[in-house]
């Protein structure tokens, strides 16, 4: 099995995903928010690229919510923003969420040619790796990045996924960028919050008042689900138990 890591969404070409499993990462914050929504009982998340697409999809049924951000803030007329804390509430239970964010949902769209599309974050790295390994295909990990720039927290999450994948597949082949992310992760595994807080995207988010979000998104392996895209909806998938992975 081969794993490659793509540094930003704009470096991804749709043909890179053919016949493969894609894992899309946007630690701050889209994929952490998606994992949280599903963990807290949302019925499914529909990721879309534009605000117009999100509004057009909303059918007016009570069991649907519009979520997302532009410039980090809730979009006018939407029910929810992009903070994971908004998705822990009773409000999301049993609801489908139509979500559009600047980087994360765009990266999910970009992976549409993959055979399987999983959503990864630090919160669910072990279960996401377990799900990906169970599909027995080559894997492409896409770091969404921030407005077309590489983001360290996405790279560290890719490294965490690689460490977990190696526990399932000792003969994993990987490209040099993937190897670099694995080494970077191993280097700061014991101090992930500090490493993430030192990076540009987190610094900007802290300035905007989102420090609690950054610290929450830096927690590793606290949830055991792997969002899997099925008919355009991300649903909670609990991967089969396989060989014991690294976890902590
Ligand atoms: O809301 C977020 O965390 C970001 C906003 S920004 O583009 O980084 O300002 O969106 P995301 O798609 O989760 O990266
Ligand atoms: Mg982001």
Automatic annotation (TrEMBL):
| Family annotation (InterPro entries) | ComB-like, ComB-like_sf
Query: How would you classify this enzyme at the top EC level?
Result: hydrolase
Protein name, UniProt field: Probable 2-phosphosulfolactate phosphatase
The family this protein is said to belong to: Belongs to the ComB family.
Q: Does the keyword Hydrolase apply?
A: yes
Annotated organism of origin: Xylanibacillus composti
Coiled coil spans: none
- What are the transmembrane regions? none
Which reaction does this chain catalyze? (2R)-O-phospho-3-sulfolactate + H2O = (2R)-3-sulfolactate + phosphate
Keyword Nucleotide-binding applies: no
Q: Which Pfam families match?
A: 2-ph_phosp
